[in-house]
């Protein structure tokens, strides 16, 4: 099967062996990309979560790699939106820098984002600032004609209202609400706005999550890892479905690992999610929906290309 991971945080220091500012083990970034390629990941979109990390992501896409073809997003995550105000030349300067990056490196940038609202982590950025700079990023999408990579956590109707009631939806053609963990009703409202729904390990924790995944229209479904976060754990409702995956595939999607304290070059790091794990997400989603995984993988490939790589269809 072939995959496109629509969201992996490859700029996270964990992928260089650094955890909370401390070196825990050697840099194994190249091996991570090789494992992704071996698992069928042909394209990978690096998530830009602020200006600096968007610049780093774009730089990474220009390096030669033995792994998947790399692309990136450009934008500012809701928890980082205070950076607009603290930027040396102010919010207009921050916006201009994002726009310049997205315009100058257009061949490797496939979306505006990660942007949206996150009310689970208001300690990082208050609601009013999140809302203000979420709306501004619709202008980036309108000017670049890029789709949007969207984030929504526990925002009641605020996220939907900004998309719909404030008439921002017309400013971009396509968008995906990534790492979706919302209710069935919320999913249906977003699909009515012609948005895609991105599923990863965090989207598969509870039985309620799985019930929602069953109902996502097939032509609105995408998958991702959100690595190094959102791994699938034994406590998740989805974990039992992995028993149905044959050993050869499990070895690709969940390679042998050790704790970071006992790091061994060539092995994965326990509890550090990697893009190679996208096959686990696919198998769980296929099992929950009672569909053939190979057929579903191809449908998701088509969905993803239609938004981010339309010239390849």
From TrEMBL:
SUPFAM superfamilies: Metallo-dependent hydrolases
Binding site for a divalent metal cation 2: 151, 178
Keywords, comma-separated and alphabetical: Hydrolase, Metal-binding, Nuclease
Superkingdom in the source lineage: Eukaryota
Keyword Metal-binding applies: yes
Positions bound to a divalent metal cation 1: 23, 25, 114, 226
Gene Ontology cellular component list: cytosol
Family annotation (Gene3D superfamilies): Metal-dependent hydrolases
GO terms, molecular function: 3'-5'-DNA exonuclease activity; metal ion binding
Family to which this protein belongs: Belongs to the metallo-dependent hydrolases superfamily. TatD-type hydrolase family.
Annotated protein name in UniProt: Uncharacterized protein
Organism: Phycomyces blakesleeanus (strain ATCC 8743b / DSM 1359 / FGSC 10004 / NBRC 33097 / NRRL 1555)
């Amino acid at each position: 099967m072939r995959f496109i991971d629509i969201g992996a945080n490859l700029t996270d220091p964990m992928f260089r062996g650094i955890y909370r500012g401390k070196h825990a083990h050697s840099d194994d970034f190249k091996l991570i990309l090789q494992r992704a390629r071996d698992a069928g990941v042909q394209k990978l979109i690096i998530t830009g979560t602020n200006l600096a990390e968007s610049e780093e992501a774009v730089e990474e896409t220009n390096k030669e790699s033995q792994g998947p073809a790399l692309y990136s997003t450009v934008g500012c995550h809701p928890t980082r939106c205070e950076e607009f105000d603290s930027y040396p030349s102010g919010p207009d300067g921050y916006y201009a820098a994002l726009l310049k990056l997205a315009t100058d490196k257009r061949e490797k940038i496939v979306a505006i984002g990660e942007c949206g609202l996150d009310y689970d982590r208001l300690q990082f950025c208050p609601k009013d600032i999140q809302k203000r700079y979420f709306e501004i990023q619709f202008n980036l999408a309108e000017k670049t004609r890029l789709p949007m990579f969207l984030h929504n956590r526990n925002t009641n109707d605020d996220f939907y209202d900004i998309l719909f009631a404030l008439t921002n939806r017309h400013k971009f053609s396509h968008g995906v609400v990534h790492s979706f963990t919302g209710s069935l009703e919320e999913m249906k409202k977003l699909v009515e706005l012609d948005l895609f729904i991105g599923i990863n390990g965090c989207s598969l924790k509870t039985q309620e999550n799985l019930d929602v995944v069953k109902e996502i229209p097939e032509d609105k479904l995408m998958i991702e890892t959100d690595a190094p976060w959102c791994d699938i754990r034994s406590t998740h409702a989805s974990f039992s479905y992995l028993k149905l995956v044959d050993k050869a595939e499990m070895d690709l999607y969940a390679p042998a690992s050790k704790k970071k304290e006992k790091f061994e070059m060539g092995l994965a790091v326990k509890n550090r999610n990697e893009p190679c794990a996208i096959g686990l997400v696919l198998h769980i989603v296929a099992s929950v929906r009672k569909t053939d995984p190979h057929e579903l993988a191809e449908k998701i490939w088509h969905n993803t290309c239609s938004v981010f790589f339309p010239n390849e269809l």
